[in-house]
Amino acid sequence: MSQNGSLERSVPQQRGPSNGEEVGEGSSRLRASPKRDHKPENYDDLQLEFSPLVFSALEQYMPHHMLSIARDDKAQYMRNILHRYLPESERIRILKHKEYRQKIILNYPPLHKEIYCMDAENFFSPSFLRAIKENTEASFKSIMAEPCGGIYTFEMLQPQFCEMLVSEVEHFERWVRETKFRIMRPNTMNKYGVVLDDFGMETMLDRLMNDFIRPISQVFFPEIGGSSLDSHHGFVVEYGINRDVELGFHVDDAEVSLNICLGKQFSGGELFFRGVRCDEHINSETQPEEIFDYSHVPGHAILHCGRHRHGARPTTSGNRINLLLWCRSSTFRELKKYQRDFSSWCGECRRRKKEKEHLTVNAIKEELLKRGIKSAS
After folding, report:
1. What pLDDT score does 9 carry?
2. Would the pLDDT of 323 be above 80?
3. Comparing C-alpha atoms, which of 264, 277, 262 is closest to residue 349?
4. Average pLDDT for residues 63-71, to the nearest whole number?
5. In what residue span(s) does the Fe2OG dioxygenase domain sit (predicted)?
6. Which of 69, 74, 177, 321 is most open to solvent, judged by the fewest CB atoms within 10 Å of its CB?
């Protein structure tokens, strides 16, 4: 995600094999495709620097000959892969963040303990629950609108849950002020809001991602890791009087982003979308068909690719509070390093590919026409 309110330009992608069976470094490399019929180990009881879900998801991409080795050896193999892209300074940061979270959880007294554990019947709207229980593409499409390509909107949360979550966030912020505890904000673009994972909601949000968002994502976002989501960043942002007013044009640090309006009374604050882009084309022009604006409705969600460029217009009155869940796939991020063509999901890659194909076809037609004229003469 851009940290200064403008779209970022990333360093060029590493290049490597794009269509072989395996990718990675060393003699034992990750497979390019997961072994779907393999049941991964459970890593919840191990002391790991990363979420246990990351290891369970990554295991399906391990070489065949390593799938039957001891669990601890598998974990070590995957840790080495993850550490390859994680400098020492980042590992220290992760350790300090764990200590920071533990300090909050040991001292903060929750207001609504019932929302810290997943209670689907009381959290979600009946229509959303029915669609998830059926777990089919047809059931998901029955509750969703797709007002613009790759953007899905639907009713999701019950009003009572929205109210409790808002009051829990307000309670947490009062505790922060009273104890003068310095907290980390969701990102450097938002000066207000809280990270829900930091004060005890990580497990509940893991369930939200695994049991409710991943089934949808593997249907609608398979090309960007929708079927292998394994970690998340869950937070609440606040806009309005004495809060953030707007949000600059940016992309999310996520494969799939869930954005749900919790309330309260407000006007303005519309989201504006301007097309999906890879790193190379992040600042390319917007095509007319990519322009879309979305007005928030409390309890309703919008689901989109994290690389879908977007921003939020000013909230002109009242206060708007939104729950965001950035869902990530470590396997997709690993495999993306070796890909060359992102035309399956980047709008500009797709446009340039079609343009190149069009030029090629025209060149062939012109050459055939020339040959026809010579033959006739």
Report:
1. 32
2. yes
3. 277
4. 91
5. 230-329
6. 177
